[in-house]
Amino acid sequence: MTHPEASVATTAAAPALLRIQDLHKAFQTVEVLKGVDVTLARGDVVTIIGSSGSGKTTLLRCVNLLEEFQRGRIEIDGQAIGYREQGGRRVPCTGAEVARHRALTGMAFQQFNLFPHLTALRNVTLGLIKVRKLARDEAVAIAEKWLDRVGMLERRNHYPGQLSGGQQQRVAIARAVAMTPRLMLFDEVTSALDPELVNEVLSVVQGLAQDGMTMLLVTHEMRFAYEVSDRIIFMNQGRIEEEGPPADLFNQPKSLRLKEFLKTIKI
Length: 267
What we know:
Helix content is 37%, strand content 26%. By secondary structure, the chain is an alpha/beta fold. The strands form 3 sheets. The protein has a 6-stranded mixed β-sheet with strand order 8-9-10-3-11-12, sandwiched between helices. The chain has a 4-stranded antiparallel β-sheet with strand order 2-1-4-5, with helices on one face. Strands 6-7 form a two-stranded antiparallel ribbon. The protein starts with a helix and ends with a helix.
């Protein structure tokens, strides 16, 4: 593995940074998540793989509270997010509470979602100033540090329309990480990119993993998943079908469905 820090963090003594228990999510009558359990220790890099429609992205969106969930519990650093128990009932948290919970995570999406009228620098400083209430000079210093980290400092004054897709995605990652989330979520961050731009974004994610950042990723880049992950989760029809170290899942799959899935991909 390329992530030695996480090998320490995944020992039995390490406390869970993320704990998902019996998570259920339905869109009207269609049940998308059917009792999902996931635990990440601090520093873990865990990648979710599976066919389209298996529930991967929905799971990430529930963790980031972009989707409501009907049953189950999600904890970050021991704190339940999204809902609380009140009089024996499960009650949605207030908007202010959800905003605080959401700040515990950062998320990079398939689409870059940059503000087109703001420069790369201002895209990164916006949340630091508006949400974290930092002074402009401090926000700029943090933003420039992370833009440098993702190789975009020289283009800090460029607008999104002046940047390639890979460059925009790197700015989007810098924007998310600059907010110092405890957990980073990556949802198919290379799927909207031309093939020649994929590696520049994956190298940024891999570098963050080597720095010890806790990550939950969804990707179709199987070689990348193999190289960067401490653990792979294979989802099938809203459930976790199999999970374990990359070498075990890719080289010695136990479930028939995972064996069939691996036949369709290249590593």
